[in-house]
Amino acid sequence: MNEFDIFCSNLLEESKRFLEKSKNEKNEDGKKAYQHSCLLLSICSLEAYINGISEEMTLANGFPIHFKGILLEKEIRIDKGEFILSDTLKMSRLTERIEILYRRYSRKKISDSNEWWAILKQGIDLRNKITHPKENIELTDILLEKILQSVIECLTAIYRAVYKNNFPKSNLSLTSKLNF
Asked: What is the pTM of this model?
């Protein structure tokens, strides 16, 4: 396991731990802080894993340049009549990057009937509402459990499609290995 994989795993474990802390917190302000941390880190962990998989797959497999641009979040330019990836950031939606990886390797679309997909999209939307606030949002521990579980189920689906193996953390519960 390389350093970046350990970092991705730690983000997921931290998210689980903040959920545990939220469940045990009596102070409402503390509870909200733990809930926000849980949500932000769970989606950050997902994005980190997707970034790592995207980089690995686009280097190893002959992806068309427009796929590389989306997966690596790089702008595509024309240089001397040739399409190239620039170093300029070109943001892509996390959900689109997940769909591209899943479709490319499973040869299937992610079904909207998958409960984890709907919950994951809700979690990403809530993360965006915290990151770019325009309104107050309310979280619950039950919703955060579902979001965390959907992150794990999403990564399991991607790992099965890409690597033909389960996500290494798929057999773990929502119990963190951390004890801070």
From this structure: 0.92
